[in-house]
Write a structure and sequence with these properties.
By secondary structure, the chain is an all-alpha fold. Helices cover 55% and strands 3% of the residues. It has a three-stranded antiparallel sheet with strand order 1-2-3. The mean pLDDT is 95. It binds acetyl coenzyme *A (ACO). Acetyl coenzyme *A binds at residues 6, 177, 208-210, 212, 237, 242-249, 293, 296, 298, 301-303.
Length: 360
């Protein structure tokens, strides 16, 4: 039996949640293209579609924003009490700590409580890192509005709120990506949805997955003002560095989410300079990667314009991966429950390549 390095091409499970068509550059979530959901749903109403048929006691689509708001308010004392323990942690590590200790509450479905926990935890960890006091959630706000209000202690503009909503829907689910796979492996042992989501957060943290957008800005800053971009890029890849925000295991064309986010950034007032610079740099990098790896199409992925978008919302670079986690919690929880309901213990095998004792 051949080993599939990095499980490339391996069909690990069946799902009715989402499908990544890497050749066509399409992402289908719950039988519709992601562009449809982004155009018609908020993050809160989209939660209903992600969890439909999986989560028991699910509020109606029209009641989802209120249910998430109430859950945020109910969870705030828990977050406030644990904030001091996140002092020396990055935002994503703090989020992982908060998720891991989520207390039981049979009255509200666990996926809903996890989706409510993430924005209050992330916003207040970000505040604490800036030496600011916590801000309580408001049950009348949507998730996107409340997250930004808590982060900055002032309400966002309509375009800012809508831009974040579009982002959160865009990244909510994406087939068998590394963090969703990790969440499903944990769920397959019947360890529970909270443990599965902690597994997802751990996998998301890495720079080859959700941790890429902060380093995308570092790359853009580093390249700005360089006379010969291609030479600078060559020097980086020759040292074994990856160009962050480019490449994908499944897409062989441009990631469709990159286009959605690029259009979304353009709606924000503060980005014109950075957006133009990013678009020019994107063209340079894609063209360089074509010559660097002519046999492997390496195109822009979701993280490139995620970086530009979250920067335009004034969020700190270090926190970008946690904002991704807020959105992806919908996908992780849905996958974890689908796995619990329809899956089997995930237990692959490995090929032993270590030394063997000589047979006597
Ligand atoms: N920059 C430079 N070289 C690259 C890049 C890149 N961004 N992406 C792939 N390559 C090269 C690799 O160096 C490798 O070369 P080699 O065969 O000479 O060793 C070859 O292309 C294949 O690389 P793999 O890592 O095997 O390809 P894979 O398709 O599995 O990689 C990945 C996907 C990890 C995302 C990769 O493209 C990468 O590291 N990108 C940069 C990090 C990034 O943007 N991550 C976010 C991804 S989107 C998400 O997870 C939400």
């Amino acid at each position: 039996m051949k080993t599939a390095n990095g499980l490339e091409g391996v069909i690990a499970t069946e799902t009715s949640l989402s499908n990544v068509d890497g050749e066509a550059g399409r992402l289908i979530v719950r039988d519709r293209d992601i562009e449809h959901w982004v155009a018609t749903q908020t993050f809160d109403s989209f939660a209903h579609h992600m969890w439909a048929g999986l989560v028991e006691g699910l509020p109606k689509e029209s009641e989802m924003a209120g249910a998430l708001g109430e859950a945020r308010v109910a969870l705030f004392p828990y977050v406030e009490a644990r904030l001091a323990h996140t002092n020396d942690l990055s935002t994503i590590e703090g989020l992982r700590f908060m998720a891991a200790g989520l207390p039981d509450d049979d009255r509200v479905p666990t996926p809903l409580r996890l989706a409510a926990l993430m924005p209050i935890a992330a916003a207040n960890i970000i505040r604490q890192q800036k030496g600011q006091v916590p801000v309580a959630p408001n049950a009348d706000h949507s998730t996107a509005e409340d997250f930004l209000t808590m982060c900055f202690d002032k309400p966002p503009s309509v375009v800012e709120r809508e831009a974040l909503d579009r982002y959160l829907v865009t990244v909510a689910d994406h087939g068998m990506n590394a963090s969703t796979f990790a969440a499903r492996v944990v769920a397959s042992t019947n360890a529970g949805v909270v443990s599965a989501i902690v597994g997802g957060l751990c996998a998301l943290k890495g720079p080859l997955h959700g941790g890429a957008p902060g380093p995308v800005l570092d790359l853009l800053d580093e390249l700005a003002g360089k006379e010969n971009i291609a030479e600078a890029l060559k020097a980086k890849v020759q040292k074994g560095e990856r160009l962050m925000g480019f490449g994908h295991r499944v897409y062989r064309v441009r990631d469709p989410r990159a286009e959605i986010l690029k259009e979304t950034v353009a709606t924000l007032p503060k980005t014109s300079g950075r957006l133009k610079e990013a678009m020019n740099m994107e063209a340079e990098i894609v063209s360089f990667l074509k010559t660097w790896k002519p046999d492997r199409p390496i195109q822009t992925n979701v993280e490139f314009y995620t970086a530009i978008l979250l920067e335009a919302l004034d969020l700190p670079r270090e926190s970008f991966v946690s904002v991704f986690g807020i959105g992806r919690t919908l996908g992780w929880t849905a996958h974890a429950i689908e796995q619990e309901k329809h899956g089997r213990l995930m237990r692959p095998r490995s090929r032993y390549i270590g030394p063997r004792e000589e047979a006597a």
